[in-house]
Amino acid sequence: MRKILMILSLLLLSSTASAEDYTVDTRHTFPSFEVNHMGLSTQRGRFDATGGAITLDSAAKTGTVLIEIDAASVNTGLKELEKHLKGEDFFNVEKHPKIIFRSDKMEFDGDRPKALHGELTLLGVTKPVTLSISSFNCRIHPMNKKFVCGADASTTIRRSEFGMGYAIPAVSDEVKLSIQIEAFRN
Fold it and tell me: Is the pTM of this model over 0.85?
């Protein structure tokens, strides 16, 4: 019995030994959005304050992701629009200061993640979403010599499903979300 427990312990340790933890680099991670404005143009914005953590096990093809976005950090380049976006019609930042994406299921293509299946919480409403990963690379950072991974991930949501219905259809219900992310290995 003791041998069986020892073997099980070694198997458990070896299966988790390749998992690596990462901390989101807040200086290079900027979630952004695109929405059609009155059929005239695509309006864009981003969030300037984002944090989070990632665990990646390429060998086991598993991982977890937590991205926390400060909704009040919305940036469009136009202060008047940002004030409106922070209000009750859109992000309602006083009542819902965080936008959160959580994933505990990664889909791989070979040894690289290609999709994150998880949940997005916006305005207190949580819905399943899948982020497609179009780029994923890891290497030693040339400046600080730390191991870093970066990715570009995106999805499209219907904002009305999260309770953000202001100005639909003039401002499209469909919103493209993109996250450019870099994270340093702990």
Answer: yes
